[in-house]
Give the backbone structure.
Amino acid sequence: MAVKIRLTRLGTKKKPYYRLVAADSEAPRDGKFLEVLGTYDPMKDPAAVTIQKEKVQHWLGKGAMVSESARAILKKEGVL
């Protein structure tokens, strides 16, 4: 089982809201996940981001891969 840190989409049509999650790489985008690591709300100005850095570091230490969109958010927040 390969673990990926990625975004899962919530919210309604035209009003997206995302969770940063650790999930099995074969699980569907909005499907089963292992742990919630933070949130991202692009509709606010500026975009609202909350990240639990300890949890992200824990999963990275276990060898989790990071998706492109999640990597951009984590870099901007100074976690990577």
Summary: The helical segments are 53-61, 68-76. The longest strand covers residues 3-12. The beta strands are 3-12, 15-24, 35-41, 48-51, 65-66. The chain has a mean pLDDT of 94.
